[in-house]
């Protein structure tokens, strides 16, 4: 026979076990929004596979390959990624059409890394109204870091203004009497850099002696370059997408104009810009980086880049390690995978945004040592540091310290 005390303990133990079972069930309860199930997560994407910015199309192809790798390894928390990517030809009206298709027909959980400032500007209000994450946007416009007004939109790369602040700091130190000519794309992308440069130069913004804009529909920017040379400027700031950046490098050589030449990070790709423009024409060009350069042998034994190279070999044999856009696509996809992993079994859109805003010192394989991803509820700018670099021989050489592009108050 059991004593009263033993019976009491047994009853208490049974209650504890029953409570643990019910609360465990509550903890393990899976939560899904449209686009997620026990077996699949639908991730939407929009890229310019055609049109004036088609050089960036390899980003989408790299991301597809990365998610193929994830799926081959069993998925994320047991779920496979269904990556649905569409072409918008770098056209805002087409981007709107594709965003609607992803949300209303394909019923994706998130729209991840859609590319281009004009395209993302066109779809931002729609996605926020629908409460669909517009996550890790592939553009550095400053406006993606506005959690108060656009809680469903978050950038990924350093903002264009942050990057321009770094160039301004460099010019103020190294060429304080320089005369700067700026060629910029006539949209939010171009204007963000121009504003960032003026902001960074502060009281010395008068160093800018010429501003020339171009449209992406123009076949060539040769005339703009000739016009800028005539101003007598000795610094040339090229705020251009890859096709036009390569044109500018070639044209400077043709007309024998040798200013200090700065090219923005999004067009610093060795494979996508420098090689087509000619290594001999590109010596001494300056830019800034936050990611490792696949063309640089210094990273050959880097653990992160070894993973990247083996990924290319196995899952993306057509991916060019010299193309910065391939490096970019890998890092962005790895960040998206990290967020999905952090979501566990709560695959609601609200939780996706909550986890994306909770990244702490996350370092994708391809980021420069010391550059880390940090986000919070009030800071939707994941990467805010860069390092200056100079093109020499057939590769970029980093110099100086990792610099934050944030303005000092």
Automatic annotation (TrEMBL):
> Signal among the record's keywords?
yes
Q: Which residues form a coiled coil?
A: none
Which N-terminal stretch is annotated as signal sequence?
1-28
Q: Which CDD domains match?
A: PBP1_ABC_ligand_binding-like
- Every Leucine-binding protein domain range: 40-392
**UniProt keywords, alphabetically:** Signal
Gene3D superfamilies in alphabetical order = 3.40.50.2300
Could you list the residue ranges that cross the membrane? none
What family classification does the UniProt entry report for this protein? Answer: Belongs to the leucine-binding protein family.
The identity of this protein, by name, is: Amino acid/amide ABC transporter substrate-binding protein, HAAT family
Q: Which source organism does the UniProt entry give? A: Bradyrhizobium erythrophlei
């Amino acid at each position: 026979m059991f004593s009263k005390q033993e019976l009491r303990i047994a009853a208490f133990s049974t209650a504890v076990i029953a409570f643990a079972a019910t609360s465990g069930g509550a903890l393990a309860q899976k939560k899904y929004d449209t686009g997620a199930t026990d077996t699949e997560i639908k991730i939407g994407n929009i890229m310019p596979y055609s049109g004036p910015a088609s050089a960036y199309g390899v980003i989408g192809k790299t991301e597809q390959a990365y998610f193929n790798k994830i799926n081959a390894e069993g998925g994320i928390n047991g779920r496979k990624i269904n990556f649905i990517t569409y072409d918008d030809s770098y056209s805002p009206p087409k981007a709107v059409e594709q965003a609607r298709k992803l949300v209303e027909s394909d019923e994706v959980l998130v729209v991840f890394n859609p590319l281009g400032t004009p395209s993302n500007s066109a779809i931002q209000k729609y996605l926020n109204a629908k409460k669909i994450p517009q996550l890790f946007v592939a553009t550095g416009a400053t406006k993606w870091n506005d959690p108060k007004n656009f809680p469903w939109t978050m950038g990924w790369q350093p903002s264009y203004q942050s990057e321009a602040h770094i160039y301004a700091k460099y010019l103020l130190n190294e060429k304080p009497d320089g005369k700067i000519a700026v060629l910029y794309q006539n949209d939010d992308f171009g204007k963000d850099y121009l504003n960032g440069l003026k902001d960074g130069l502060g009281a010395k913004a008068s160093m800018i002696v010429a501003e020339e804009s171009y449209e992406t529909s123009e076949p060539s920017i040769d005339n703009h370059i000739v016009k800028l040379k005539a101003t007598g400027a000795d610094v040339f700031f090229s705020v251009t997408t890859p096709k036009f950046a390569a044109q500018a490098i070639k044209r400077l050589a043709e007309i024998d104009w040798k200013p200090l030449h700065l090219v923005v990070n999004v067009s610093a790709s060795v494979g996508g810009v420098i090689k087509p423009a000619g290594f001999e024409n590109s010596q001494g060009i300056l830019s800034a980086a936050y990611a490792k350069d696949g063309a640089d042998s210094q990273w050959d034994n880097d653990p992160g880049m070894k993973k990247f190279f083996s990924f290319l070999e196995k899952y993306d044999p057509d991916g060019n390690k010299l193309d910065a856009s391939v490096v970019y696509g890998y890092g962005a996809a790895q960040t998206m995978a990290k967020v999905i992993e952090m979501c566990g079994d709560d695959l609601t859109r609200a939780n996706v945004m909550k986890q994306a805003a909770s990244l702490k010192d996350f370092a994708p394989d391809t980021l420069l040592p010391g550059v880390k991803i940090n986000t919070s509820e009030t800071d939707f700018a994941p990467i805010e540091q860069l390092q200056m670099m100079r093109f020499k021989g057939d590769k970029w050489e980093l110099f100086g310290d990792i610099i934050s592009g944030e303005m000092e108050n």
